[in-house]
Amino acid sequence: ESCSVSECAFPQVGVTAQKTMRLLPASGRKATQKVVVGDQDGVITCFGIKKGEAVPVFKTLPGQKIARLELGGALNTPQEKIFVATGSEVRGFTKRGKQFLSFETNLTESIKAMHISGADLLLCASYIYNHYCDCKDQHYYLSGDKINDVLCLPVDKVNCITPVLACQDRLLRVLQGSDLLYEVEVPGPPTVLALNNGKGGDSGEEIVYGTSDGKLGLIQITGSKPIPKWEIGNEKKRGGILCIDSFDILGDGVKELLVGRDDGMLEIYNFESAYDPVLRYDHALSESIASIQGGCVGKDGYDEILASTYSGKVHIIYSINSAYGDVIKMKQAVLLLQLTSLKIFVLQEREKYQQSSQSSTAVSSVPAFSVNDKFMLNKDDASYSLILEVQTAIDNVLVQVSVNFCESTDPFCIFFLVFCSLQPNSNFLLATYRCQANTTRLELKVKCSTIFSMIRQYGTLQAYVTPRIQPKTCQVHQYQIKPLSLHQRTHSIDHDRPMNTLTLKGQFSFAEIHSWVVFCLPEVPEKTPAGESITFYFQNTFLGTQLESTYRKGEGCFKSDNISTISILKDVLSKEATKRKINLNISYDINEESVRHTLKLIHPKLEYQQLLAKKVHLIDALRELQVHEGNVDFLLPKYRSILEEADQLLDEYKRQPAHLERLYGMITDLFIDKFKFKGTNVKSKVPLLLEILDGCDQDGLIAFFEAA
């Protein structure tokens, strides 16, 4: 359901990070609230709104970029002190802008997440959690993976400090002092945490989380175990969740859940019952939403939603049916006039710059600009999304990539494609995306697969981002496409499956073999794990096969129900060890039953894709027949069904055009890998295998594998 809202953007600050905008408490019963924002120029800006105009309260001098902004104060009093995390330092300001705290922590890395509860300060760097009380070190914890967010259950309700860490490995880690109390697995990498209804629910133990793949959930964190309450998937394939707030924007006496996503989608969920959230309204902004909060800023008695976006715009979302709407409509008219005069001014200044740059004494500097990027695996279609967001309009993006597919989801984008060499470690393609209109965000899909020539596709994707600024400049961003790029971390596997085993032994350190695993597989923390050994579990998002990886100094053991996974690991790990001049003793145990098992996993997908392709190929002929005959009642029901579902079938086929080829490639690899471990080259039999695949006979396919 679309939200009947209007939107107004107020004066822009610098580029903002996640959770760096808050509303100060109102000073009186009917008074409006002030907005405080911290940006990556290190500036804290505080302003109010009066008659549709921004009224400044204070603005600090530039400094290190602000990673987090939180409000604090004594427990059970208005939280009106402003705290910002910059580098490894925490600074405190009064609501008037006077600095009263400068706390240099003992963290060796920059602060990534922060939470404040009275005199207690919870800080997180990439892997390290620190708890301070009155700026004195209390507790410390080293996480197994990167920490994305942190919060503490309300002390006035649970009577103790209970920190919860949102970690990249799909876990919430609940701490007690410096110790891990327990872990909670969630359906995706959690990016943001918030207390349910702002207070943790009736018990104070309820936490709402959002994930990088767009899922929402509520978990009760008790003293002994977690209790999941509800979970919402991402059926609409929207962006990852960056911010969450609770506020009664609908005025029904129950706080709604406000959600901001990295694709610019703002959502409002309300509750038909305590644990039954329903999406009621949504509103699309043009940039990722870094912070969101409900409050009253523009006019006494009228509630709004404030959202700050990546480039530093602060948006106010409100109902156009409110009396406040007329004020905002006037404000929008004024903004249009200001925008027109600003465009004229920019053209004049650009002309002056070009004239001065051509003089003999001219000195030109490269303009700096920020790029917000994200490279993540989409489980649903086994593709990677590359999201690029720039603080100004994008002119073009050149993608240099060693995999075989790259497309844009942006309709305001002209796409040029050049295919290059198929040789290993060379460019498979160069793709140029020239953006139209005022595009600041571009999303590309990259699909990685193994092709019939048996080139294992891995390498580097490079994106050259050029914005519409003068003089022309670009930034280069690199992303690793790993040999087992379609795998994702999981925390349990089915140990009853038939498994193949690869064992490595040699004179290598724990850190060296860990670096090889990082090179091969996604979602593995770069930091070498604590302890003497580690076990990771993975699942192939396309086939559903699994991998168990256990290693220590001098030894590594890898188990998978897919022979091709073992084959890739054997080839890549051997190559990495050779680079370091390390001799490996490699042994393997191949389970013949695993081949039959993998084929049974693949076959339903193969059968579905072949049927889909056949239906799509019939659509044009059936439509032509429909035009000539005028009536298709004489057709068999299955053909009439194809005509009725034609648009849906074409859309599905367009969204996954290479699925059938990928399945053929994976079955071909499985066939070749099975016999490679026996020392037999069966590439000459691949054409016969492809003929059998066209027939889609599972028993015949299994018989061919066993008889070859």
TrEMBL record:
The gene is Bbs7. Residues 487-589 form the BBS7 platform domain. Residues 21-315 form the BBS7 beta-propeller domain. Residues 592-705 form the BBS7 helical hairpin domain. One of its GO terms (biological process) is non-motile cilium assembly. It comes from Balaeniceps rex (Shoebill). One of its GO terms (cellular component) is axoneme. This is BBS7 protein. Residues 367-479 form the BBS7 GAE domain. SUPFAM superfamilies: WD40 repeat-like (SSF50978).
